[in-house]
Design a protein that fits this description.
Chain A contains six helices and twelve strands. By secondary structure, chain A is of the alpha+beta class. Classes of the chains: A alpha+beta, B mainly alpha.
Chain lengths: 312, 172
């Protein structure tokens, strides 16, 4: 066992290593060129792998959450006081809500309004998160079997969380609004100002392209605007906050620290790429560019030479 | 001339795969969802380098590729890119292992730090060349520092938990 040079660094071995590295580079190029297909393969693999370890994931997660819950017993007295105060405030709110509900139902009865029956949801449990500090996404335990479609909006109880991107048979990935690749058109509530919510890997995503910044104040409610047809309009996203760098940011309404159950809104038919074949390949076989006019010579050759050209 | 792989090789491979799986598992647990703290160290890379520098006969290159490729798939990274750099770094370490063997740990640590830095730099360079979205530079530097800082801990933990030590003499 005590070989002096522990590895037989033969030329063959070096060639094999080089071949392996080239194969990996080829895989990377494949991923770069045909990204949708590679991502489908990835989704399928995750779909195979992760649910198998659910039996281990769930108890470990639960135990850790219980431990952190246990730690919070240490300040149970303060918590109790806090809750009491909150409860008092809430009962005032409850009164207001009841009154508003009565008023609302009265108005709705007058208008004969019906709530959109299509606005239903599927609830999923978060299985794993992205596992790295550079991407923000979670994996839900609902997938194509449950009718999940790419692009649907995902909320926790209160606010928008992200959108479905990547659906496997039993799992689906939710890209959170804080992910660096996430962009969401939003409306700032009282003024109706349009803006774009841009994730930048921090807990408070940026609010960009505000038309008139003067109209937007910290504390304003922000809802999804529905531009682009990806999300239904009017879903609560959060409140405007001023970042320490003076830029407008958003405090999310959803509790990002405790993403456990998420609702996937089955709210709109997903945008389907109808002519994907024509865009990618195989759809158009002729030359690319303006089409040639039909040649009169061909037409003449195809017709019967003895045809007098008039119909009897 | 086919000969069965040695027992220590098989055992080492299995222990390596199991420990990589445990590291990945802990990373994927949805405990810190939404809390964006510091990017933690890349413990898998540190473990691979420590292993290659201690028992290169136990860890074949395809096993490394398999483990890191699985990590690539599950962590939503570009497929295969990081694997190439980990493979190259581990091969570079493996080639120099006989020469580095008799030197003190501080020197090894420094060299491993340089290797990790080069791998991360190359990874970032390819990301820029292929116009992929690059993560913030500050976070990458933090991750590099964390990984280098965690290297002695990984060596220590591997020594005590799975008995990873040099094959020749009993010294680290």
């Amino acid at each position: 066992m005590a070989r002096k040079g522990p590895d037989f660094a033969t030329p063959v071995r070096r060639v094999l290593i080089a071949v392996m590295a080239l194969a990996l580079l080829a895989l990377f190029l494949f991923w770069r060129i045909d990204s949708p297909r590679a991502e489908q393969m990835r989704t399928a693999m995750i779909d195979r792998i992760v649910p198998r370890f659910e039996w281990a994931l769930v108890p470990v997660t639960r135990v850790t959450q219980m431990v952190s819950g246990f730690q919070s017993y240490a300040r149970i007295y303060e918590q109790n006081q806090e809750l009491r105060r909150e409860l008092q405030r809430m009962s005032a709110w409850r009164e207001a809500a009841v009154q508003l509900e009565q008023e609302n139902s009265k108005l709705m009865a007058q208008n004969n309004v019906r709530i959109d029956p299509a606005l239903t949801s599927v609830t999923g449990v978060v299985m794993v998160d992205s596992g790295s500090a550079f991407r923000q996404s979670v994996l839900l335990n609902v997938g194509r079997q449950d009718g999940i479609v790419e692009g649907w909006a995902t909320m926790d109880g209160l606010g928008l969380v992200g959108r479905i991107s990547g659906v496997g048979n039993r799992t689906s990935r939710v890209v959170l609004l804080t992910d660096p690749s996430s962009r969401l058109p939003v409306t700032v509530q009282p003024t109706g100002e349009r803006a774009l919510l841009t994730g930048d890997n921090t807990p408070l995503p940026l609010l960009e392209f505000v038309e008139q910044g003067d109209n937007v104040r910290p504390g304003d409610r922000v809802v999804s605007s529905g531009d682009g047809g990806v999300f239904p309009p009017g879903l609560l996203v959060g409140q405007v906050a001023q970042g320490s760098d003076g830029r407008l940011r958003l405090r999310m309404a959803a509790d990002y620290e405790r993403l456990e159950f998420l609702r996937v809104l089955r709210s709109h038919p997903a945008e389907a790429v109808v002519d994907g074949a024509a865009v990618i390949r195989g759809g158009i076989t002729g030359p690319i560019g303006p089409q040639l006019p039909t040649s009169p010579v061909d037409a003449a050759a195809a017709s019967d030479p003895l045809d007098p050209g008039t119909t009897p | 001339m086919i000969q069965l792989p040695r027992r220590s090789f098989v055992l080492g491979t299995l222990v390596f795969l199991a420990s990589v799986w445990v590291l990945l598992f802990v990373r994927l647990l949805p405990l810190s969802g939404g809390i964006m703290g510091w990017p933690g160290p890349d413990l898998g890379l540190a473990l691979i380098l420590a292993w290659v520098l201690r028992r290169p006969d136990q860890l074949a290159a395809p096993v490394i590729v398999l483990a890191v490729l699985l990590e690539d798939v599950l962590l939503m990274r570009p497929l295969g890119l990081w694997t190439v750099f980990v493979l190259l770094a581990s091969e570079a370490a493996r080639l120099r292992e006989p020469r580095w063997r008799d030197q003190p740990f501080m020197v090894e640590w420094l060299r491993v730090g340089i290797l990790i830095g080069l791998a991360m730099l190359g990874y970032r360079l390819v990301q820029v060349v292929f116009m992929l979205p690059v993560s913030a530079l500050g976070q990458v530097i933090l991750q590099f520092l964390a990984t280098v800082a965690a290297y002695p801990l990984v060596v220590f933990a591997a020594r005590w938990l799975i008995g990873l030590r040099r094959s020749g003499r009993n010294e680290t």
